[in-house]
User: Which sequence fits this backbone?
């Protein structure tokens, strides 16, 4: 089996043998670039957790913030979540604290 390699603006595809060292090198570089991109995205997302304004709410810690971000994926979705949605993940007391916190910050 052979694998085609084509650059951005190519008209002709160069065919490389499936077992060649050249193809393995190109695949390795592709995999490393992909791994690097994924790690960068994970780091960026974890930094959003660290800088989260949710930590300003008394009684809300790392585990609660992680649960919320895992489920809702963004701070905007957490802000717009109803109490019922939050109660499915947290106890009612924490859910009320989060809702009150965002009501107070909207008034400012």
Assistant:
């Amino acid at each position: 089996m052979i694998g085609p390699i084509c650059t951005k603006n190519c008209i002709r595809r160069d065919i490389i043998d499936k077992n060649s060292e050249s193809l393995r090198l190109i695949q390795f570089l592709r995999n490393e670039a992909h791994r690097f991109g994924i790690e960068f995205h994970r780091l960026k997302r974890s930094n959003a957790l660290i800088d989260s304004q949710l930590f300003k709410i008394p009684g809300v810690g790392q585990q609660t913030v992680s649960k919320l971000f895992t489920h809702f994926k963004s701070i905007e979705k957490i802000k717009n979540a109803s109490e019922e949605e939050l109660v499915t993940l947290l106890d009612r007391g924490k859910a009320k604290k989060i809702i009150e916190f965002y009501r107070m910050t909207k008034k400012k």
In short: The chain has two domains: 1-51, 54-108.
